[in-house]
């Protein structure tokens, strides 16, 4: 029995997968009317503008931590207007593209403690951030439908 395992997915393929989700989430964010992004909610859930800030403040800090061990997540989660959220989303997407190739491939298998409290293998920590985005995007779909707006096709990540 070999102790060497071949990864199921390469780091480049994982980034491409994540960026597909990010493109779709950005379209959901863009579909919101400006006046509803920070005020509309259902069932006691937070407005989508707050959820978007959470996603923004998780992405780059997680990858920066993976690259340099810098787990400072000092980015504010204060609500922002739609144009500012879209700008921050685009900036974090570009930062992700710059930082990602700096993660050495073996690091994805290392156990790390992110932000001083979340200990897991790096690929699991990253998958958590992706899963969190998908979860909150689904809330955005519910909100858009509640507002009478057809959300983007969930399967179109182009």
Describe this structure in words.
By secondary structure, the chain is mainly α. The chain has a single domain (11-146), classed as Four Helix Bundle (Hemerythrin (Met), subunit A) (Up-down Bundle), CATH 1.20.120.450. The protein contains four helices and two strands, in the order αααββα. The chain has helices at residues 11-31, 48-68, 82-99, 122-146; strands at residues 111-114, 118-121. A two-stranded antiparallel ribbon has the order 1-2. A hairpin with a 3-residue loop joins strand 1 (111-114) and strand 2. Helix 1 runs parallel beside helix 4 (122-146), helix 2 runs parallel beside helix 3 (82-99) and helix 2 packs antiparallel against helix 4 (122-146). It is globular, with a radius of gyration of 17 Å. It starts with 10 loop residues before the first helix and ends in a 12-residue tail after the last helix. The mean pLDDT is 94.
Order of helices and strands: HHHEEH
Query: Which residues sit in consecutive blocks of at least 5 with pLDDT less than 50?
Result: none
CATH homologous superfamily assignment: dinb family like domain
Number of H- or I-type helical stretches: 4
Question: β content, as a range?
Answer: 5-15%
């Amino acid at each position: 029995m070999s102790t060497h395992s071949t990864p199921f997915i390469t780091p480049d393929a994982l980034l491409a997968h994540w960026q597909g989700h990010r493109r779709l989430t950005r379209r959901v964010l863009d579909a919101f009317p400006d006046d509803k992004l920070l005020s509309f909610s259902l069932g006691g859930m937070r407005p989508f503008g707050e959820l978007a800030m959470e996603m923004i403040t998780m992405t780059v800090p997680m990858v920066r931590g993976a690259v340099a061990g810098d787990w400072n997540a000092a980015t504010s989660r204060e609500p922002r207007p739609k144009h500012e959220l879209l700008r921050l989303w685009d900036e974090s997407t570009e930062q992700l593209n710059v930082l990602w190739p700096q993660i050495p491939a073996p690091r994805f298998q290392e156990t790390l403690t992110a932000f001083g409290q979340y200990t897991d293998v790096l690929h699991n920590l990253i998958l958590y951030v992706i899963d969190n985005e998908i979860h909150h995007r689904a809330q955005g779909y519910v909100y858009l439908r509640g507002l009478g707006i057809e959300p983007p096709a969930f399967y179109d990540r182009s």
